[in-house]
Amino acid sequence: MVIDHPPSNLVDGPFIAALMALLDQLDNDDGARVVVFSSADPDFFLMHGDVRGILAIPPGPHEPAVEPNVAAALFERLHRSSLVSIGVVDGAARGGGAEFLAALDLRFGSERAVLGQPEVAMGILPGAGGTARLPHLLGRARALEVILSGRDVGAEEALHSGWLDGLHPSEELAEVVRRLAARIASMPPASVAAVKRVIDRSLESFDDALVAETDAFGALTAGGLHIVRMERFLEAGGQTREGETTRWDALFDAMADRFDE
Fold first, then answer.
1. CATH topology for 2-184?
2. Per residue in 201-218, pLDDT tens?
């Protein structure tokens, strides 16, 4: 999915509406496995939230929130989806753009990637999930430093801190991510969805995650979808010393439905 929202690729009302429509469409597409987000803008993956729109919020008495705002809830919906979401960053992603990126499952950038959360300098805070999500990606101290300083984080630092999951030259980035997306799409969707659920549970409670993991394993084997893949693995020479020391890639390919290099 190419983000193309001129003139500046803002995270604004039209962007949120388009993302909501996309998720509705993907939820109704049984063949959808992976969604890759890249940008048509040469400078910005996404710029940030619409500052003029925030300025239009009238000051006044504050009622305590009982649920996330629309953007935060929508980004979390994408994060919790059974689909695997991947961001391709070949430019800047600040503010709401960085928050959208953080909500994705995986993030890959080029040497041109720049991430940042400048909201505190504006008198607010990252309010579309960034303040809540970055400590899980970066750790508490690093998240505090990045958010409170409002500074730009370059590609190399973003990689080493965990904000990006991989770094590749601009001319190679799209193809690297395409191959990864194809590899993930070749996996059984029920297994992929189960892995996402258990990993998310582990960030909340390790003991609960162990139970969820056992439950997911039982549900997957009870469904029987593993049988044909495991049979292919054995028929191709899996679980033999020769096969697993000299032909592992071929064994893996034998299991996959649509593995496409």
1. 2-enoyl-CoA Hydratase; Chain A, domain 1 (3.90.226)
2. 999 888 888 898 889 888
